[in-house]
Amino acid sequence: MELRKIQEEIETSGLSSGATKSTFSKGREKEEEKCDIRTEFQRDRDRIIHCKAFRRMKHKTQVFISPEGDHYRTRLTHTLEVSQIARTVARALRLNEDLAEAIALGHDLGHTPFGHSGEAVLNRLYAEGFEHCDQSLRVVDKLEKNGEGLNLTYEVRDGILNHRTSGNPGTLEGKVVQISDKIAYINHDIDDAIRAGILKEEDIPKGIIEVLGKGSSQRINTMIRSIVNESINKDKVSMSKDVHVAMNALRAFMFDKVYDDERAKNEGEKVERMLSDLYEYYIKDYEKMENEFVEIVKRGETVERAVCDYIACMTDRYAVSVYGKLFVPSSWNIY
């Protein structure tokens, strides 16, 4: 069976000149025999979906810490929404949809428990600093498969590392994920904020509504159409100026009204205490961590690095559970 070669030929003949063809991938750090069915980027997508870090995202905070309700986004549902937007844009621009999907699915694997609050704590505690994009790459390179890593292609790894606004992805597909991430979180965070009673749709400035539309669906549609119209048949990924300005204004509005909300700050203080206590505890006695993280130290890395990895990999509920066992007295009965 040479189905892979057929798909590679379809990529070469059907994708745009700026698209990244899997045939011309810069490859993997460790060479492997190619699959006869899937392209290299399809293999990467599958490896990410089946890894432990991907499953853990379903119990990690997106914005609202431990929300009461079944409809708030988690890190996993955010990732799926980014993937959907990125695939739509990539297909419309005749870019490599498989590459965009793989990057999107892997971009947040390194996120801490409790979202950006947890990220800020680890960045303060760990001397070398902590950013989730760096940690996402570390997850796929060094932590998955008992330290062997997933051995992903250069292009997927580059997209994961550079997905933040400050990053500079080396492929157009990476740039698609970068902007799709922003489209997804701005709009679904508004949806969740309205559900939480922090915002009302009418609170959004009228000038933004006039450009982007009313409701998440209209706004996402406006942003995607703007990208496609501005970028089709061009070696770039961009929005029209008016939509880009409105999107950034909406992002600034969310920081002012939601991300820096007093209630969020109060919960963030609890996260600070919890993760700081866990970090200090395991620094003093790292052998009490799960064995796969003890092995990181045995492989020659620092205790601080291993403890940072351990805490970053925790889900919200696992962190709370471990904290309770270590620091909260348990009840006991005398008969």
Rg, rounded, reads 21 Å
Helix content: 55-70%
Under the CATH scheme, which class?
Mainly Alpha
Which word captures the global form?
flat
What is the makeup of the main sheet? none
CATH-scheme architecture: Orthogonal Bundle
| Secondary structure tally: strands | 0
Folded structure, characterized:
There is one protein chain. This protein is an all-alpha fold and 335 residues long. It has a single domain, classed as Hypothetical protein af1432. Helix content is 62%, strand content 0%. The chain is built from 16 helices and no strands. The chain has helices at residues 3-14, 40-49, 52-56, 75-92, 97-106, 115-125, 132-143, 154-161, 172-196, 206-212, 216-231, 241-259, 262-284, 291-298, 303-313, 316-327. Helix 4 packs antiparallel against helix 5 (97-106) and helix 13 (262-284) packs across helix 16 (316-327). It is flat, with a radius of gyration of 21 Å. It starts with a helix and ends in an 8-residue tail after the last helix. 43% of the residues are buried.
Offer a quick outline of the entry.
This protein has helices at residues 3-14, 40-49, 52-56, 75-92, 97-106, 115-125, 132-143, 154-161, 172-196, 206-212, 216-231, 241-259, 262-284, 291-298, 303-313, 316-327.
Topology:
Elements: H1 3-14, H2 40-49, H3 52-56, H4 75-92, H5 97-106, H6 115-125, H7 132-143, H8 154-161, H9 172-196, H10 206-212, H11 216-231, H12 241-259, H13 262-284, H14 291-298, H15 303-313, H16 316-327
List keywords for this structure.
Hypothetical protein af1432; mainly alpha
